[in-house]
Specification:
Order of helices and strands: HHEHE
Strand order of the largest sheet: 1-2
Oligomer: single chain
Shape: globular
Radius of gyration: 16 Å
Number of strands: 2
Largest sheet: 2 strands, parallel
Amino acid sequence: SDYRNGHGTHVCGTIAGRRAEDGEKVSRGVADGVAYDAKLAFFDIGDADGNLELPVRDSVLLSTGRETGDESKDAHIHSASWGGMSNSYTAQSRNFDNYMYLNPDFLILVAAGNSGRDGLNTVGTPATAKNIIS
């Protein structure tokens, strides 16, 4: 389960959720995710204390679900609804850009951050990458 507030579950539901009025029978409605027929592959980056624990190589994270053995089922979108505190173009930003460059059929979406109300320079890495959407 999600560590505190179900953030990962909420994001997955926004992307690929399906409405079920009675909790079992699927029905269409305003509660459907934006890509409700999509399949999800995920990489758990949270530890038991609620901290982020990323793999050493960003390509490991980004390639989750990419090569299923059936090209029609391979992942083509990565949603990273997390981020760091640095508003610089970091090695991780560069790694995300490089992954996009090497995989033109892929799109990385990254949360811009949660500190916008604090003013300027609040977009955190890897949302500072150039070839992603944030």
